Amino acid sequence: MKRLVVCTMLAALSAHAAENTDALRKEFEAYKQASDARIQALEQEVAEKQEATLTEEELATIRNTLARATLDFEFHGYMRAGYGVDDSGGAMSTFQAPNSGAKYRLGNEDDSYLETTFLTRTAPEDAGEDVSFETIITLAYSVPISNGNDFDSTTSLREAYAVATGIVADSPDMSFWAGQRFYSRYDVHMNDFYYRDMSGYGGGVEGISIGENSKLAIAWLGGSIDELDSDGSAFEDPDDNFNKNSLDFALTDTVMPGGTLDVFLTLANFAGDTFTQDGIDHEVDDSNGAAISLMYKTPVKKTGSNILSLQYGTGAAANFRAQMTVPNGLDLTNPNSDFIDTDNARTWRVLDDITYDINEKWSLHGLALYEESDYGVSGPSKVKWASLGARPIYHFNRYFSLATEAGYDYTDTDGGNSGGVYKLTFAPQITPKSTVLSRPAIRAFFTYAWWDSDFKGEVASSSYNSDTHGLSAGMQVETWW
C-alpha cells in the first residue's frame, strides 16, 4: 500500500514538472518571437532613416562601389607540387633527352612551382568612362625535389607592369604598357616547351586594329635577368644568360580559310658579353639578328585548338626569346667553344600542337615537332631534335579519369651522341570536369622510361647513371586559376 502511494505521488510530481516545462517553453518562444519582431522593426526604421538622409546620387555611388568591390582586384596563379621516388626510394629524377628543348612532363616533374598574380584596376571615377588602367604584379617560388640538402629555393619577381586601355577614342581596344611582363608566350602544355617567349623588360602598344579582324602589336624589349626559365624551373647557371635588345612586331587574328594566322617578326641586337664556366673563359660575340614565326590556328570542336607553327631565326634572334642564352647542349669544355660567333647561329622549327575533347569519354593532347639549331661555334655546332607525343585521357565519369602519356624524343648532336628517349606514364586523376584542361588535377603517377645506349649516364643520371631505363612513382597536384 505504501509503495502505491509513493508511486502515485511521484507520477503526480512528474506530470506537474512536465506541465511547468511546457509552459516555460511556450513562454520563451513567445518572448523570442516578440524580440525578433522588435529587432526587425528597429532595423527597418534605421534603414528608412539612412535612406532619408542620403541623396539618390549618394545611394547610387554606394551601390556602384559595392558592385565593383570584386571587379577592381583579381588574384590569379599557377601551381604544381608533389613528390616522387625512383626505384630505390630516393627522390625521383626526370627523363629528358640530352640537348632537347623539353621533356614530356606528366609524371616527370621534380619540382614545386607557385606563381601568383595580383591585378588591381583604377576606379572609373579616377580613370574615366570606358577607360581601364591595370597594375599587375606576379611573384613566383620554385623549389626542386632533391636527393640531398644542396638544392636552392628560388623566389622571383616575374611581372611588374601597368597597362592602359581605351584612351584612344577611335581605337577602344588599343592598349599601352610598360614594365616587366610575360609577353607573347606560346608553349606546348604537354611538355611545357615555350617555342616563343618574349617576356622581359620594356614597353609597347597592343590592339591596333588593322582591317576587319587583325590586330597589330609593337614592343621594345630587353632580356630578363630572372633566375627562372620560361617553364618555372631554375637555370642551372644564371650567369650564362645575357641581355639583348629586341624590337617585336605581331600581326594576329588574320582570318584565313579554316582558322586564323598570327605573324611575328623580331629584330634583335646583342652587344656581346663574356662568362666563365669550369675555369674556362668564353666570349659571346656581338650580333644582330631577325626571327619570324607563323602560327596557323584552327578550332577543334567547341573547346579544342590546333596550332601549326613554322619558325626561323638568325643571329641574336635565333632563340625566339627576349634574352640571350648559351645554346642548349653546347659543350663548354670543348676548346672551340671559347668563342661563340652569334652571327652564325641559326634555328628553324616546325611543330603541330593539338588539344581537344573528343567526346564525353575521351580527351587528347598531341605534339609533333622537328628542330635544327646551329650554335655558331667552329667545329661541331649543330643539334637536331625530333619529338612525338600523345596524352589521351579516359574519363570514367565527371571527376575520375586516367591520363596516359607516351612521348619520344630523338636528338642528334653534331660530333656527339645521338639516340632516343622513350617515356610512358599512367596517371589516375581527379578533376572538376571531364575536359582536357580541367584543373585542379589531383593525380598519382607511375612512369617508366628507357633510352638508347649512347645516352647512358646522360639521362636521369642521379638515379640511373649506369642504366638505360628507369622508373618513378609519386603524387602531384597541378592547378591554375
UniProtKB/TrEMBL annotation:
InterPro entries reported in the protein's UniProt record: G_neg_Bact_CarbUptk_Porin (IPR050286), Porin_LamB (IPR003192), Porin_LamB_sf (IPR036998)
Location of the protein in the cell: Cell outer membrane
Coiled coil: 25-59
Membrane topology of the entry: Multi-pass membrane protein
GO aspect biological process, one term: polysaccharide transport
Keywords: Cell outer membrane, Coiled coil, Ion transport, Membrane, Porin, Signal, Transmembrane, Transmembrane beta strand, Transport
GO terms for cellular component: cell outer membrane; pore complex
GO molecular function ontology, one term from the record: porin activity
Keyword Nuclease carried by entry: no
UniProt keyword RNA-binding, yes or no: no
Superkingdom of this protein's organism: Bacteria
Annotated signal sequence range: 1-17
Pfam families per the UniProt record, alphabetical: LamB
Similarity comment text for this entry: Belongs to the porin LamB (TC 1.B.3) family.
Protein name as catalogued: Maltoporin
Gene designation per UniProt: lamB
